[in-house]
Amino acid sequence: MTVLAIIIRSIFALMFVGSGIYHLVNPDFFMPLMPSFLPAHRSLIIWSGWVEILVGIGLFIGPVQQWAVWGVLALLFVFTPIHILDIGKEKPAVGSKQIAIGRLVMQFVLIAAAFYLLF
């Protein structure tokens, strides 16, 4: 494994475990991001938090590392439409259109980084 892969894996682990914990301790923060067509917003936020924590931890457990990277990709792809929908709002949940656009761009950078870990 290259040094770059270790750095990317570490960043993802910190990001996903940290975000997952935040989903559990402050689910109300994520409520404005939830699309109205999804049911059980609070439950989805809590469950996604647990999945993020498991995926983040899995990035450092040898036998499941590749599965965890696929989990990172799956989460990034699932959350991408939420970022796209936020851009379309008159007042995005993240504060401004510029921030919402920046988050979407960052989403694609993260997807590219996750693909890097696969190969």
Mean pLDDT: 94
The total beta strand count reads 0
Q: How many domain modules?
A: 1
Major sheet size, sense and barrel closure: none
Structure, briefly:
The chain has one domain. Helices cover 73% and strands 0% of the residues.
Structure description:
There is one protein chain. With 119 residues, the chain is mostly helical. It has one domain (3-118). Helix content is 73%, strand content 0%. The chain has four helices and no strands. It has helices spanning 3-25, 41-58, 65-88, 97-118. α3 packs antiparallel against α4 (97-118). The longest helix has 24 residues, at 65-88. The chain is globular. The chain starts with a helix and ends with a helix.
Strands, helices and their partners?
Blueprint: H1 3-25, H2 41-58, H3 65-88, H4 97-118
Give structural attributes:
mainly alpha; 119 residues; single chain
